[in-house]
Amino acid sequence: MIEVFDLHKGFNGEEILKGITTNFERGKTNLIIGTSGSGKTVFLKCMLGLFKPEKGRICYDGEAYSEMEEEEQRSLREKMGMVFQGSALFDSMTVEENVMFPIRMFTRQGKEEMLEKANEAISRVNLENANKKLPSEISGGMQKRVAIARAIVTRPKYLFCDEPNSGLDPKTAMIIDNLIKEITEDYNITTVINTHDMNSVMEIGEKIVFLKNGYLEWEGDKTQIFKTDNEAVTEFVYSSNLFKKVREAQLKGL
Amino acid sequence: MFYLDDIGKYVLMLRGVFSRMTKRSVLKDLIFKEIDDLIIGSLGITVFLAFFIGAVVAIQTALNLTSPLIPKNLIAFASRQSVILEFAPTFISVIMAGKVGSFITSSIGTMRVTEQIDALEVMGINSLNYLVFPKIIAMLTYPFVIAIAMFMGILGAYVAGVYGGFVSSTEFLSGLREEFIPYHLVYAFIKTCFFAFLLATIPSFHGYYMKGGALEVGKASTTAFVWTTVVIIISNYIITQLLLS
């Protein structure tokens, strides 16, 4: 479980996160949503330890990150998996080497053992035939799967995904969403996903945190988000024509 | 103030490079890869440049020796001194600032833009050590490149001088051995080692701390080249003043 208390973060005098307090439960897919510039990525990067908050605390299973020694912070990071928006695969490494990389860095296992674990993660994301290919030789959807395989290969306790289905077609996006949900349940990990895709919200949103201008505007789940009276959330949810029409139909009782 | 801020950041970067070392077996592979990219990959251009620089120095020296009282073997002596003291260590290093420097800045800068450095940090890896330290170690073999450049420069001078009809082979070889001071080689290699460190670290600094997208990667490469050259030229003056005067 990740708990966030009164989190503040700014850049060059401008406050981006303005006192966020929330929590993300284990075994659930937790979504952070909001318009571009609402502070989603900064929030995620604070949780990853890439940005140091000016104020507030982030606790991982009860332990505050800011109060940990440097060595403890490093070992906590080893328990985190991250899927970046652009996949962030290492260009010079093959798919297999990319997935094997975290094990190679932190364990003293033999090559056979490492390969076995890497292949297990690769098959978990249904990507068996691309082991020897370079990231530039596979599609965007496959790159996302490799990124997920790399993130889960060390069996992390926390999985973070920054817009995992951006730039993907709706079908592939749905496959990626469901894959993340399955992994979260199978491995019983705390998953936090940044997105502004309403399809993801409908598909996997077990807990949803809505950010607006750096504030936590609303939180709930995927059924509550369609019933809320919060104006900012409603405006966000029904900003697409499809959802607008669904809403109109609902109001007309169709 | 802006430059002071950058100098401070550079020193802090160096501290980061030498702390929290990456696993030895991984480092070993990275170092061999960097030697291949930075050193072996630079041999061709170095050999080519050094040969022709040596040849031009020999021709120009020969054409300026108009007095019959000056012995012809001075062509070899002047070429040797120019190549060993300046052309091989400094001129080649300035060329390397363009070749190796822009490669380092653009490769690290692209990793920054595509969040690969963030990925390393999230995994708990010291990205500075992982990315920059192998480059510094690989550049320890840079004096080997300069030694080849010295040899090729003198060979170029020999070919241009002898086959161009400016000096006989015997005169050239006697001039080459005349008043040879081994300390000059020591001086040349001391400054080469210092330049190697600058060539590995200044472009890494510009790549690692760059912000923005593809356009900024290009800008960072240019800035890295300019600053590496400036620092090489200034440090060349200081080292020369300290070691030779």
From TrEMBL, chain A:
Gene3D superfamilies in UniProt: P-loop containing nucleotide triphosphate hydrolases
Which InterPro entries does this entry report, sorted A to Z? AAA+_ATPase, ABC_transporter-like_ATP-bd, ABC_transporter-like_CS, P-loop_NTPase
GO MF annotation, one: ATP binding
SMART domains attached here? AAA
Keywords annotated in UniProt: ATP-binding, Nucleotide-binding, Transport
Which Pfam families does the annotation name?
ABC_tran
Start and end of every ABC transporter domain?
Answer: 2-238
List, alphabetically, the SUPFAM superfamilies matched. Answer: P-loop containing nucleoside triphosphate hydrolases
User: This chain belongs to which protein, by name?
Assistant: Phospholipid/cholesterol/gamma-HCH transport system ATP-binding protein
Organism of origin is Aquimarina brevivitae
Q: Give the organism's phylogenetic lineage.
A: Bacteria, Pseudomonadati, Bacteroidota, Flavobacteriia, Flavobacteriales
UniProtKB/TrEMBL annotation, chain B:
ATP-binding recorded as keyword? no
Alphabetized Pfam families for the sequence: MlaE
Mention any one GO cellular component term assigned to this protein in its UniProt record: ATP-binding cassette (ABC) transporter complex
Spell out the InterPro entries in the cross-references: Permease_MalE
- Taxonomically, which superkingdom? Bacteria
Its keywords, alphabetically, are: Membrane, Transmembrane, Transmembrane helix
Q: Give a GO molecular function annotation for the protein.
A: phospholipid transporter activity
According to the record, the segments passing through the membrane are: 38-63, 83-104, 136-164, 185-205, 225-244
Instruction: Give the protein name, as stated in the record.
Output: Phospholipid/cholesterol/gamma-HCH transport system permease protein
Record organism: Aquimarina brevivitae
